[in-house]
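F.,

This is the one I mentioned.
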């Protein structure tokens, strides 16, 4: 559940980038989300952005974490960590780490991107296996994709039902095509107040977790930050709702109405 939330939070807007001076985010940004499954507060997820040095270069380091709480933790423990080191100008990823524990299921993968050769070197830390996969020049991991995609200069000129797509890497065995459809605008009630939002629908693979291909709805702030605000998913069993509950370090003001 946490895994799907973090992926979907990361895939909510479209491309290409602004210049660095017009970026929708900055070092020090912090976002926190509460996830409810039915009537239960099942988990929390967070995203933090900092400056770090990677192979002698100053880059962004984005860290995403998710874990179950309360009764949900007793029945199905989740402790997930995702992190990405990516270029501050181009948003190209240098390194991606996926380290998850979900009800006994684990995955520990490191991805090393080499765009000079258009391949990614993947290390499986659980079985010590390594492999190379060919990639396209604009591919992203699911965390760097959030920050790359938030900088779309055409966000406020999208027409209803416009669709966009991009290549994404998440696991060690495939690159998948992500598709997103713009639905319109809406003022959304959140624990922080009412926020003006843009509404999107990712087109996901049905039959595994989600009820059908269009069973997800996503809301992002209709301002210069373009932060995730809410996600709603119809699952095979029940429904999931995630919403923002706190933020810090935003680059631009976010207007909260009638808190």
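My design for it:
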């Amino acid at each position: 559940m946490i895994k799907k939330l973090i992926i979907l939070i990361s895939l909510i807007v479209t491309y290409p980038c602004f210049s660095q001076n017009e970026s929708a985010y900055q070092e020090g940004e912090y976002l926190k989300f509460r996830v409810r499954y039915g009537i239960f507060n099942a988990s929390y997820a967070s995203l933090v952005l900092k400056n770090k040095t990677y192979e002698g270069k100053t880059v962004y380091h984005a860290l995403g974490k998710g874990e179950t709480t309360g009764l949900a933790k007793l029945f199905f423990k989740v402790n997930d960590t995702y992190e990405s080191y990516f270029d501050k100008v181009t948003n190209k990823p240098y390194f991606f780490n996926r380290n998850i524990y979900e009800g006994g299921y684990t995955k520990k993968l490191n991805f090393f991107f080499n765009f000079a050769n258009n391949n990614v070197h993947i290390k499986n830390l659980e079985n010590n296996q390594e492999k190379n996969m060919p990639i396209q020049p604009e591919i992203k991991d699911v965390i760097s994709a959030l920050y790359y995609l938030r900088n779309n200069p055409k966000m406020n000129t999208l027409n209803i039902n416009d669709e966009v797509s991009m290549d994404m890497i998440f696991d060690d065995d495939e690159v998948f095509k992500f598709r997103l459809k713009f639905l319109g605008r809406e003022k959304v009630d959140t624990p922080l107040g009412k926020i003006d939002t843009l509404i999107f629908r990712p087109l996901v693979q049905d039959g595994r977790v989600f009820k059908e291909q269009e069973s997800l709805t996503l809301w992002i702030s209709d301002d210069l930050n373009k932060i995730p605000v809410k996600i709603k998913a119809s699952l095979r069993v029940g429904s999931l709702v995630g919403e923002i509950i706190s933020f810090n370090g935003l680059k631009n003001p976010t207007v909260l109405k009638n808190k």
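Residues 1-6, 9-21, 205-214 have pLDDT under 50 and may be disordered.

Talk soon.
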